[in-house]
Amino acid sequence: MKVGLAGWWQTQSTPAIPRATLNAAADLGGKTVLVLGANAGLGLEAAANFARLVPAPGRIILACRSAERGEKALAHVKTTTGYEGKLEVWQVDLCELASVVRFADRFDADGGRLDVLVANAAIMPQVYHATKDGFEESLQVAAIATPHVILRLLPAMLRTAAEHKTLPRIVVVSSDGHYWAQIDERVWDAPGPDAGILRTLGSAAYCAQKGAIFARYSITKLLNVFFMRALAARLPADPGSGPVPRVVVNAVHPGMCITDIFAKFPLPVRALIRGAQRLVAYTADEGARFLVWAAVGDAAALRGQYIGGGRPQESSDFVLSERGQRAQESLWAEVLDILGDVDPKVLSIVREYLEEPKQHA
Ligand SMILES: NC(=O)c1ccc[n+]([C@@H]2O[C@H](COP(=O)([O-])OP(=O)(O)OC[C@H]3O[C@@H](n4cnc5c(N)ncnc54)[C@H](OP(=O)(O)O)[C@@H]3O)[C@@H](O)[C@H]2O)c1
Fold it and tell me: Which residue ranges traverse the bilayer (predicted)?
């Protein structure tokens, strides 16, 4: 699907999901919800919305890069919702894969259940900035560290499904920006040490090219969709319920929302965007409810889907193209190759818990 102005507006003008609808759909009693990138914007408001839905003794984990910002977020969730269940801040910096390893090891040691994982963290870059791992930071957050967290926490979700007879949910926060992204020719055929889509896109040399950083955010959102689809195709089915996987994954576009995601833009541009946002954008609370809906709405309808305006929508033509399919599989292999070097547990998890890819619905 291509999205023109009319299609964009159709999604953007969809009314926010009412709290009553979320309440009616959600069955979160006693469950554990983890929001990645929970200290600001949509992640923070998603955590607050989950807090309204998860009756005590549920558990909500705010996974944040800064413990200090996380504690402020925790106080916000507590005061705005009166939540009485377990509310915790766990530190994780997606710009450092060693931090993801520590975070996941802590989760393994904790041994708790995991019912909902909302992978929401993102960066909208304005300049090239490399992580300690050597990748452009927004690319690492979206396409390497987010898959890292998801794959490492997958065994806990599958265990939760088996022990509690439930259907855990993974929500990858993407964007309609993915409709405008393609992976261009220079990336596919790049020779040398940076060979591979992620290694090429993540390199200083590629990012120095004209327009590369400008196009970066949409590409990260495209990579979110690719990862979601690659994972959905490999999730094991429940033998008792036909093709329904034991964990459901989808990708969601929350709509254009008023948050600080544009904070790194120059002031005049920011002011212009703020003006436009006041006219058409959702509040962070309204946008967050689309994230929550992706986690609690009808699993059969939403599984493996890209969701916009609260309903499944076709992904971009590039995603669905033969070239896109090849990109998806090549990215999957490269993510495992990169993660295998820093965290061998990822490869064991893939071998033990995931299946050969099925054709995507
Ligand atoms: N706002 C929109 O109009 C819009 C539209 C479509 C899609 N989205 C998507 O919605 C999601 C949330 O966006 P938002 O608007 O709420 O953005 P935001 O206000 O900038 O929040 C981004 C969150 O990601 C976290 N994060 C960034 N880098 C991280 C890292 N290295 N490690 C851990 N956490 C990190 C941030 O933490 P720090 O505070 O530590 O940086 C923050 O909590 C993103 O995936 C975005 O692409 C937003």
Answer: none
Q: With respect to residue 19, please indicate whether it lies within any of the assigned structural domains.
A: yes
C-alpha distance from residue 59 to each of 51, 86, 103, 112, 284 (Å)? 9, 5, 17, 10, 22
CATH code where residue 83 lies: 3.40.50.720
Alpha helices (H) along 257-343: 267-280, 284-296, 299-302, 317-320, 322-342
User: Is 31 in the active site?
Assistant: no
Predicted TM-score of the model (pTM): 0.96
- Residue 361 in domain: no
Express each pLDDT in 266-319 by its tens digit: 888 889 998 988 899 999 999 999 999 999 999 999 999 999 999 999 999 999
For residue 261, how far is its CA from the centre of ligand 1 (angstroms)? 6
Q: Whose CA is nearest to atom 1 of ligand 1?
A: 257
Instruction: Indicate the number of domains in the chain.
Output: 1
In the residue annotation, 315 being an active-site residue is answered as no
Angle at 252 between CA 105 and CA 52, to 5 degrees: 70
User: What residue owns the CA closest to ligand 1's atom 18?
Assistant: 261
Which one, of 260, 256, 258, lies nearest residue 14 by Cα? Answer: 256
Model confidence pLDDT, tens digit, residues 185-211: 778 766 666 689 999 999 999 999 999
Assess if residue 323 is contained within a domain.
yes
What atom of ligand 1 comes closest to residue 93's alpha carbon?
32
